[in-house]
Amino acid sequence: MSATIYKCPNCGAAMSFDSATQKLACASCGTNIDVVDYDKYIKELESEYNDNNNEEFSSDAGEYDGDSSENMKVFHCQSCGAKLVTDKFTSATFCSYCGNPNLVEERLDGEFSPDYVIPFKINKDAAVTAYKDWLKKGILTPRSLARNSVVEKISGIYVPFWLYDYSANSKMNALANRVRVVRRGDYEYTYTDHYRIYRDVSANFDKIPADASEKMPDERMDKLEPFNYQELVEFKKGYLQGYLSEKYNYNAEEIEDRTKSRAKESITNITRGTIKGYTSVVVNGNDVSVSDLKNTYALLPVWMLNFKYNDKNYSFYINGQTGKIVADRPVSIKRGIVFFITVFIIILVILMIGGLYI
């Protein structure tokens, strides 16, 4: 295993992916380079080196240290030489000493190589601003959560997802009634017509997502949807520079039941939605089938912040592409008491003023 840094071709400093320009950026000299162009640049260096030296090019990668446990691995940072400790699923991380990004190449190759990635469109400053605005909207939210010691922990992470394409079919039987009221002279007549209804509806569903990370809560990742899949691009490791990333914990087959259930629910709702214009409808049979078309492995961008308040854990997530927020909101008892007293005093004053004019 190895850890790798994308170095600036101009000055040699570590580069990070810039969500604003959608390019690799060097904070040292200001160089910007497209991710695809950077890969071409490395390949040209490899070819030139191999031609001149008649031996295999060796990239600037640190070797696996060997000092590890079953779940933790140790690598050397290629900027400062410090040891990097990661769990066995981390594929991109930072050096705690020099702050430079490092990739664990072997966790992004072979079966773990993603097909696609949606690059971050929201940078850290925007994520921090969104978090602080979210705090302000909570009247009873403790203001201590806006401290820099909390805010600085917000992290951008590429979460592993499987995206599933399905062909689905629903054969639905239903009983329906339509009630008609007809008036003739002084009399009103009510007619009830009964119908047997059959629907045979087929639909294709593209890219139903399921997060494949053990660490990320499924229900929170589901609520961060939708992602705009038109912005999926072919995976290049350069997009991960400056962000955290994980490889998947679960393969496509292990979590497919989640997305198949969603496809079945969707085709059922679509079919039921075609039965209109009746007073009442009772579905008495629905035969649903879902066929696999394909699945793809993608990394999707998420900003996350985990914090503790009054010994209870809370989480804050932002869709790194759309800005949608999914979060827990803690309540400050002290602020609650102050709020209650303030409201009570305001109501009391209003009542007293009203009494003066009676």
Please, could you describe this protein's structure?
This protein is an alpha+beta fold. It has a domain at 156-333. 23% of the residues lie in helices and 39% in strands. It contains six helices and 17 strands. It has helices at 35-53, 124-137, 148-151, 218-223, 256-272, 333-356, and strands at 2-4, 15-18, 23-26, 32-33, 61-63, 72-76, 83-87, 90-94, 101-104, 116-117, 155-184, 187-211, 233-234, 244-246, 280-309, 312-319, 325-327. Strands 1, 5, 8, 9, 10, 11, 12, 13, 14, 15, 16 and 17 form a twelve-stranded mixed β-sheet that branches. A three-stranded antiparallel β-sheet has the order 2-3-4. The longest helix has 24 residues, at 333-356. The termini are far apart. Residues 55-68 have low confidence and may be disordered.
Which descriptors apply to this entry?
alpha+beta; twelve-stranded mixed β-sheet; three-stranded antiparallel β-sheet; 39% strand
Set down the secondary structure blueprint.
Layout: E1 2-4, E2 15-18, E3 23-26, E4 32-33, H1 35-53, E5 61-63, E6 72-76, E7 83-87, E8 90-94, E9 101-104, E10 116-117, H2 124-137, H3 148-151, E11 155-184, E12 187-211, H4 218-223, E13 233-234, E14 244-246, H5 256-272, E15 280-309, E16 312-319, E17 325-327, H6 333-356
